[in-house]
């Protein structure tokens, strides 16, 4: 039942194995002995249990589902008890059988009966032997045996060695033995006696166990599950890991026993093994035939409601089934009924109940499901394809046609399965090659690398067009020594719709590999330009944005905007468009597309697809300067990615989460280990550039302008990092202004604008305008300090400089900054500093307060201390007041009731998300409220809200 080997019930532990430590080996143990992975808390609890039992006696029940590792924990405890000098007696229940009465108890006392040093005066033991071995009646009636067993165990424990009674699968013992052992458990206290029992959970806890201390054994967490697979099943690819983690759901036995590649067989059935089936569904073979048919169709079609499943099951056996067919399966604990659908008690139970079913019966079940499902639906055609043998060109054509419907329904894995089966059913080689190649292309998009290679190899065995062959070679890794085709300039022009489709897929696959090679990148761009009829195809736009995110930005964004009716666009294309928009410098558009993709995945209950989307949402928020929202998105991505075994997304999310923390606080940014970066690059190809730009921006947040200025200058001049560095133009300008390098920075901005020309994205144009306004004061200050002429000339120069700065500021404020608080906040800060230098203190304070509110909404905590210093320099008092100006009488005179409530909650330390959850508003709406509240109350940080509100209410 568990991962460790059982001892014979007739053998004492002292004779069986050398003692093992209860403290299981941690990570780094040998693969053949990984220990009890993920069970450290339970091991510590059982170690404390043994210590308690040796002192004054104790009993414990380890309760967990089949395969959870109860027997492994029991074995570890037994070995630890032996190592500390305890004597062990044990017994094991047998599932699926009908054990004779008192057979479990006999397993425990048999070693005592065979003891050569047994005392001749052992009266209670002799009487127990006559009852258990000879079948004699109990001398004092039914109640005599439990008391006699207690006296026997007490005498053994008092003889010198403390005693551990280990009972595995208590609930599978015969009923008399169960009653006696629970009786003993309640009387263990006061004697050096330990009674440890394992049991499976029941819907209603057995009355005999009520009141006994319990140690629940839940599923392993995602990280522990991944460690167990790495230790016991090394060499699994990422796709197999994800599939096993999803199906096993933290069950150790399922993690070790589930086979991989279960969809390779026809007819398709859920995977299982002999051992797993025996543990999860031990009595399934003894159920009535109608119940077994019902469980079979439920395992093949989990989304079906009970009436549909009953109708399909009736067709298998030819007898009408009703709801009573479900009762035996419910009593056996295999399924639960929620009033509409059946739910197996564990994801792996579906495979366990159908394990070993004859393939002919499986095909009959698929045919029965196809007969009762909606005609022409995706599921109906899928089940029909599993029921047929040999070639079926009509069905193959329908499968190929309906795969697009599966994509629209946000079911890309089903689309891959449909195309794969169509390739098997087509009789003509050309049709087989087309379907196999299309399946490989879709599998590559989904990250199913093993399946993509398999289908690409299958496609290469069939006749393909020139571009189709190149695409299959790229997917299989067989072309050009395992690398993508070397020279896109040699690719032939696509002829026909099929070759156009292959051309787009080939460009999508090849673009990331040639992005760093100028010659091949230009050749691929020229190839894409040769398909003007497909200029708005998401794959073409994504490839173009990957190759030239800066030089082709306007073209990419225009193509993305030309895509209409997004509700009809497959979710895969939504994600490609979102990444293209993000690479081209429009995070707002990218965020909208990724949010639509997230809604689709959630509506269709596809949590495994969410980490990729949430990670891109976080990058879009980060590009917009919103630290709070980006950190939340990365956190959710990491949690989901770890739960679904997507280590590459988890690694990228954790690195980016640390980056956001550095941006918020101005602290150092963790760059990650080589292994973390290698995994993260599989999720975000530009992760190195993003981290480098983020680290430089964190220096600006910390006020370390001397280090930030050369770092950002280098990143802007490097073609490999320029696309990411364009989002940091404002920190670049702030660092240049602080380092008196405004002229050099302005020259860099002019050069960037000239290089972009007509391809300059609107978001980058706005950044350039704001950056020039931020640089205006630094440039003007340095210019007039260099003058050596008369005071009148200096004053004239200062006046002209002030007018220039004011003009640049007005031009920047004329831009639509409503959706860009990350641009308005530094602009307000620069305006407040300039007004303070011109001694316009009242206007300066107003601008600085608005800047503080904006940075607070963005989560830029490190900025607030510097802004507070600027406010003090402009005449702001420490309590938020202004010299010579009286405060309003009460906060309600300044705030609406809603604003007052938000201010009170924020003052208590609640985040924007927590405030929004209480009031039914989005975090961004809460941030917008605070943006207006802070200047009205004269505060710059949340920590001041409580005191200010209290003072104003008292006034």
Explained architecture:
The protein is mainly alpha-helical. The chain contains 45 helices and 7 strands. Strands 2-3-4-1-5 form a 5-stranded parallel beta sheet, sandwiched between helices. Strands 6-7 form a two-stranded antiparallel ribbon. Helix 6 links the parallel strand 3 and strand 4. Helix 37 runs parallel beside helix 39.
Major beta sheet, specifics? 5 strands, parallel
What's the oligomerization state? single chain
Q: Compute the CA-based radius of gyration.
A: 36 Å
Q: Give unreliable regions as ranges.
A: 1-34, 781-792, 882-889
Distinct helical segment count: 45
Question: Which structural class matches the secondary elements?
Answer: mainly alpha
Strand order of the largest sheet: 2-3-4-1-5
Q: What's the average pLDDT? A: 83
Describe this structure in a few short sentences.
With 955 residues, the protein is mostly helical.
Strands, helices and their partners?
Blueprint: H1 40-56, E1 58-64, H2 70-83, E2 87-92, H3 103-113, H4 123-132, H5 144-158, E3 163-168, H6 175-185, E4 193-199, E5 214-217, H7 222-232, H8 238-248, H9 252-257, H10 274-280, H11 289-300, H12 306-317, H13 327-331, E6 335-337, E7 342-344, H14 349-354, H15 359-372, H16 378-387, H17 393-408, H18 412-425, H19 429-445, H20 449-460, H21 466-476, H22 497-514, H23 518-529, H24 538-547, H25 553-561, H26 571-583, H27 587-603, H28 610-623, H29 627-643, H30 647-665, H31 674-681, H32 687-701, H33 705-717, H34 722-725, H35 729-738, H36 742-756, H37 762-785, H38 791-813, H39 821-837, H40 841-858, H41 861-873, H42 897-907, H43 912-919, H44 923-937, H45 945-954
Parallel strand pairs: 1-4, 1-5, 2-3, 3-4
Antiparallel strand pairs: 6-7
Helix pairs in contact: 1-2, 3-4, 4-5, 5-6, 11-12, 11-15, 12-15, 15-16, 16-17, 17-18, 18-19, 19-20, 19-21, 20-21, 21-22, 22-23, 22-24, 24-25, 24-26, 25-26, 26-27, 26-28, 27-28, 28-29, 28-30, 29-30, 30-31, 30-32, 32-33, 33-35, 35-36, 35-37, 36-37, 37-38, 37-39, 39-40, 40-41, 40-44, 42-45, 43-44
